[in-house]
Specification:
- The protein contains 16 helices and 17 strands.
- It has about 475 residues and is of the alpha/beta class.
- It folds into 3 domains: about 5-185, no CATH class; about 190-370 and about 455-470, P-loop containing nucleotide triphosphate hydrolases (Rossmann fold); about 375-445, Helicase, Ruva Protein, domain 3.
């Protein structure tokens, strides 16, 4: 057992906490996050006079903290929330215990918080249990018995201080103030968390991990087979020559982000999006350190996630980049994109000429997919799927065909917007008039889009490496 520590805070000067830990405690962000969570229920924790009160609070954590982290959790809790409770109710002390399990608990740390200027008449126990392995009803039923056993053990340990700083009696224990059960969300990946602590700056970066919303069947029919053959099947079969990444390019709104999520879904992966605002810092060298920390965590989860770098124009060619920090940022990403242990990586960009060519070379990003404006069949598929998603109906089948006709040279995002606008006009049921009304709200420069489509054909022919194209002809559109 570690030595008994006497803790006090300038925040609550009239209160003292006696803290003892059965393992060496470790200060981490977890302790303060738990304090913030419990502060939201401060009303129940501050009223010590209500001895009938006994509530069970379940707290979901993304991962089980280590025993050292758990042992330290009582320090900020005692100095802040519990200290405030005792200061308002000086006749009461609060005995807190962090334990593993419940019916046969393993104590990790104890704390006793009492008023400095008066003897303790009553003790309210507060139990924090990790992975209790017991139902809520049984925890409530046996809470007093478990608290009594823990309190007797604490009295024995604190006996050298009894009578000098406080007067303890094993019989003056009242009903539990609260039982706080920490339960992990499970083994599924929910977020990527990178922590930087270089002595001068403490920074925690969290990137959500989510399930893809789109499937391979949502892509243009003419490209699905090529995607399966060149990307999906080799990866699913674990072939050593399988591609490590894909680059998706095309005009805004044609479905690049949809394809990125569909690729992840077809591989059974969740998606993590890396955005500059997540990791960039104004301090010299901090951006690179944050990137390295993020990729370190991403690599650990590589079997479960696909990394998506959406709107990747910020990874512009270094010959156009003047700022030293930006060059260093791109070089750091280049290094991680060539690591053999990286996850499957997908980049998307509207303007492919801005991307540093070194990023797109085989070995980093193996396959390039060039997407043009959707053809008739793809627009029809999008209209039918989105109408089901929004629970929109049509006056008759002719309205659907009319919508396909009038959305020539529309992007898929614009097709979706027209559907929603016409549905708003028709109250959820689209007629010919609703469709014509909605179409007049859109401006589409056809000649500009034809020119952009021709540019994509030219770019796809000149680019190096494996290229898959979906660029419909004008007749198909």
């Amino acid at each position: 057992m570690a030595d008994i520590k006497v803790l006090w805070s300038n925040l609550h000067k009239g209160v003292r906490t006696f803290y003892l830990s059965f393992i060496r405690p470790k200060e981490t962000f977890f302790s303060y996050k738990l304090l913030a969570t419990l502060s939201k229920r401060a009303k129940e924790l501050i009223d010590l006079d209500d001895v009938e009160s006994k509530f069970l609070l379940k707290v979901l954590v993304s991962r089980y903290p280590s025993r050292k982290e758990l042992a330290y959790a009582l320090v900020p809790l005692s100095l802040n929330l519990i200290g405030k409770s005792v200061l308002k109710n000086p006749a009461y002390g609060v005995f807190s215990a962090v334990i593993e399990g419940f019916r046969n608990p393993r104590p990790l740390s104890f704390s006793l918080t009492v008023s400095k200027d008066s003897y303790v008449d009553y003790i309210r126990p507060l139990i924090i249990t990790v992975n209790p392995g017991t139902s809520s009803s049984l925890m409530k039923k046996h809470a007093s018995a478990v608290a009594s056993r823990l309190w007797k053990a604490a009295v024995s340990e604190l006996s050298p201080l009894n009578g000098r700083y406080f007067r303890l009696d094993p019989t003056n224990l009242t009903s539990p103030l609260a039982i706080i059960a920490l339960t992990a969300k499970g083994r599924s990946v929910e977020e990527i968390k990178a922590v930087l602590n270089d002595g001068g700056e403490y920074r925690e970066v969290k990137i959500p991990v989510r399930k893809p919303e789109w499937k391979l069947e949502d892509l243009p029919s003419s490209i699905i087979e090529d995607i399966k053959t060149s990307i999906v099947e080799p990866l699913k079969k674990g072939m050593s020559f399988a591609t490590k990444g894909a680059f998706l390019t095309g005009p805004p709104g044609v479905g690049k982000s949809v394809m990125a999520e569909a690729l992840a879904d077809s591989l059974g992966l969740k998606v993590v999006e890396l955005r500059p605002q997540t990791y960039r810092s104004m301090w010299y060298g901090a951006t690179e350190r944050t990137l390295n920390a993020i990729f370190k965590e991403i690599v650990k989860k590589r079997k479960h996630i696909a990394l998506i770098i959406d709107d990747a124009e910020f990874l512009s060619s270094r010959k156009y980049t003047m700022h030293e920090a930006h060059i260093s940022e791109i070089s750091t990403i280049l290094y991680h994109l060539q690591r053999p242990d990286r996850p499957f990586t997908i980049l998307t960009a509207n303007n492919p000429d801005l991307i540093d060519p070194a990023i797109l070379r085989p070995g980093r990003i193996d396959v390039t997919v060039v997407m043009g404006y959707p053809d008739r069949r793809t627009r029809m598929k999008a209209i039918l799927k989105n109408s089901q998603r929004y629970r929109v109906s049509f006056h008759d089948e002719g309205v659907i065909n009319k919508m396909v006709d009038i959305t020539k040279w529309f992007t898929l995002a614009e097709v979706d917007a027209l559907l929603r606008l016409a549905a708003s006009k028709g109250g959820g049921r689209i007629s010919y008039d609703d469709l014509e009304w909605g179409r007049k709200k859109f401006n589409v420069n056809v000649s500009e889009r034809i020119s952009l489509q021709d540019y994509l054909r030219w770019w796809s022919r000149k680019t190096q490496g494996i290229v898959i194209t979906y660029i419909p002809s004008e007749s198909e559109i």
